[in-house]
Amino acid sequence: MTNEHRQGQVIATIRSLLPSLLPTEQAVAAVFLARSTEIIELSSQQVAELAGASRATVVRTCQSLGFSGYQQLRVLLARDASLESPRQPVPAGGDGIVRETFRHVADTVNGMTALLDDSEVTRALGELETAGRVVVIGNGLSASLATDFAARLTSIGRHAESPLDPIGQQITARLLTADDVLVVISGSGATLSTLRTAEAAREAGAAVIAITAFARSPLTQVATLCLVVTMPDLTFRDEITLTSRLPQAILIEGIVAALSHHLGESAARAKGLLLDVISNNLAE
């Protein structure tokens, strides 16, 4: 666990790492999440009984999550649980659900970056600024984010490409060099075609920047840099069934803004040319 167990990070870490745990450890982690507001009052033996596991498994689960043991986790988990806003009943009617969705995002926005490592962000910006070639890929519901990210980078003068065909992605990645960067967007970090593209880029010697929702996944094992942002109450099942790409979309906005600032005059010049094109295509 890094960043000295920042506030808001512990619960997000458990949710993010849960899919990578052993089945018995997952049962223990599920108790941590379900009883997060009560955990300070529970002993490790009580947690073990609730999870149908042994006390040793409780301790091992804490260590698998990056903590020294149960005592450290219970104090930090209680601290983070006190920061969470209680879920409000969803208002009746479609309009109420729409408004509730906005409210829920607003309440959880701080937790989206709980696992985002600032040093990784800095390194990613440096790679994107200096790379000879930038390729952005995503598949499934991440495909549109990849296309948008590439277009946004191009609009500030940092040309990027985003091939859509999975085999074409792998061919493009294999032809990269050590001077190039592949950005991989994948919420689950487990899509097979996406992983093959990331592996092809690594074989070519290129840097691989992962934008994902889970800190421990097949993709994070391949990537050279990992930018992890997620909905704080997201589970792996949610990710593959309900799927929210809001945290990744906001991260992309932030990266483009920061990179534009770094590029300075060249980004401003590119934006000016972009506005010329757009203005010529607007009807009176």
What is the top-level CATH class of the largest domain? Alpha Beta
* Count of strand segments: 5
Query: What series of H and E elements makes up the topology?
Result: HHHHHHHEHEHEHEHEHHH
Helix content range: 55-70%
Q: Order of strands side by side in the largest beta sheet?
A: 2-1-3-4-5
Write the layout of secondary structure elements.
Blueprint lengths: L8 H9 L5 H12 L9 H8 L3 H10 L5 H12 L12 H19 L5 H13 L3 E5 L4 H13 L4 E2 L4 H9 L6 E6 L5 H13 L2 E6 L5 H5 L2 E4 L7 H6 L4 H18 L1 H15 L5
Parallel strand pairs: 1-2, 1-3, 3-4, 4-5
Helix pairs in contact: 2-3, 2-4, 3-4, 7-13, 8-13, 9-10
Please, could you describe this protein's structure?
By secondary structure, this protein is an alpha/beta fold. It folds into 2 domains: about 70 residues, Winged helix-like DNA-binding domain superfamily/Winged helix DNA-binding domain (Arc Repressor Mutant, subunit A); about 160 residues, Glucose-6-phosphate isomerase like protein, domain 1 (Rossmann fold). The protein has a 5-stranded parallel beta sheet with strand order 2-1-3-4-5, with helices on both faces.
